[in-house]
Fold:
Amino acid sequence: MPPFFVMSLLFGLTFGQTASLCAPSEYIIHVEKRECAYCLAINTTICAGFCMTRDSNGKKLLLKSSLSQNVCTYKEMLYQTALIPGCPHHTIPYYSYPVAVSCKCGKCNTDYSDCVHEKIRTNYCTKPQKLCNM
Structure:
């Protein structure tokens, strides 16, 4: 094997995680309550991107701890609250949502992240839409 190829391979394995493309990304959340007249479209940021993962084809030969797959997840986040317009007085018209400040590649924490990719699109409005720029 040529020495350049071996050095490139070792460099890629050593520093590959730092070159991942996991970063805050703009995203629109659609929020509506049954009692309220409008759907609110909220501009926010989420963590999205590519993280280096391990090939688990040899899972019988590897330790269980080495089989974990990294995902792009929150390193630092804050919560903001928006007011949903057109709600009757007996309804709480507020919605709190996370805003990604910084991201990292790591294990998915189900306390604040959805770790399953669903094929069904659920982020849409069924009522007239209002835009909320935060």
